[in-house]
Structures are given as structure tokens and as C-alpha cells.
């Protein structure tokens, strides 16, 4: 994950030095919750956290602007998983096994 973040920062710096325009600052997203887990999506980076040691895994569902549903990786127990996703994602929700899912939320 550190390599991906470092590559992103290096690419942004190279673009700025080349006189290119940088995009507006990304929205910081907002946390959504379900029993045993939480997730945040800022339009590029998705963070999913398993907040309970209860044997129930936690992941997010993502809906694209075409209506397709994608699934994040499972968050490690009592830890978080962060991964990049395309800007075509318009909604997300967090789900915990045996507890169900939150409502769908807009990405911002």
C-alpha cells in the first residue's frame, strides 16, 4: 500500500513540476457504520475496518455509475484494509457477516 501511495504522490509532484494542473483537493469522505465494522470512501480510496473480534468478517460493497456492484477485500480482524477504486463508484455500504449491511451512501 505504501508503494501505491508513494507512486501517487510522486506522480502528482511530477505533474506540478511539469506545469500541469492538479485536480481539486479530494473530499475526505465520511465514515459509515454497521455492527462490528465501518468504512469510508473519499472518491478514490476506500478504507474498511473490522472493529470487533467476533468472527464476522467486514467488507464494503461499491456501486458504479452503470449500476454494477463491486466488493472490497475483507478487513483483517480489529484492523483496516485500504484500497484504491475508480472514480466511477457513486455509492458504497459496509457489510459485516451475520450482521447485515448499512444503507447505501453517496461517496461524498
Your description of this structure?
With 108 residues, the chain is mostly beta strands. The protein has a single domain, classed as Immunoglobulin-like, CATH 2.60.40. Helix content is 15%, strand content 39%. It has one helix at 2-17, and strands at 31-34, 37-41, 45-50, 58-64, 69-71, 80-84, 89-96, 100-101, 105-106. It is globular, with a radius of gyration of 15 Å.
State the total count of DSSP E strands: 9
Q: Provide a count of the helices.
A: 1
CATH topology: Immunoglobulin-like
Counting structural domains, the number is: 1
CATH architectural group: Sandwich
Strand % is 35-45%
Radius of gyration: 15 Å
Q: Specify the overall morphology.
A: globular
Mean pLDDT: 81
Order of helices and strands: HEEEEEEEEE
Helix content bin: 10-25%
Low-confidence stretches: 1-26
What are the SSEs and their pairings?
Blueprint: H1 2-17, E1 31-34, E2 37-41, E3 45-50, E4 58-64, E5 69-71, E6 80-84, E7 89-96, E8 100-101, E9 105-106
Antiparallel strand pairs: 1-2, 2-3, 3-6, 4-5, 4-7, 7-8, 7-9
Amino acid at each position: 500500500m505504501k508503494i501505491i501511495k508513494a507512486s501517487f504522490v510522486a506522480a502528482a509532484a511530477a505533474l506540478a513540476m511539469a506545469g500541469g494542473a492538479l485536480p481539486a483537493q479530494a473530499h475526505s469522505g465520511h465514515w459509515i457504520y454497521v455492527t462490528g465494522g465501518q468504512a469510508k470512501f473519499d472518491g478514490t480510496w476506500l478504507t474498511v475496518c473490522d472493529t470487533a473480534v467476533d468472527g464476522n468478517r467486514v467488507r464494503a460493497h461499491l456501486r458504479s455509475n452503470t449500476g454494477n456492484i463491486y466488493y472490497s477485500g475483507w478487513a483483517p480482524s480489529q484492523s483496516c484494509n485500504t484500497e484504491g477504486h475508480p472514480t466511477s463508484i457513486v455509492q458504497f455500504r459496509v457489510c459485516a457477516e451475520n450482521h447485515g449491511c448499512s444503507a447505501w451512501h453517496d461517496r461524498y
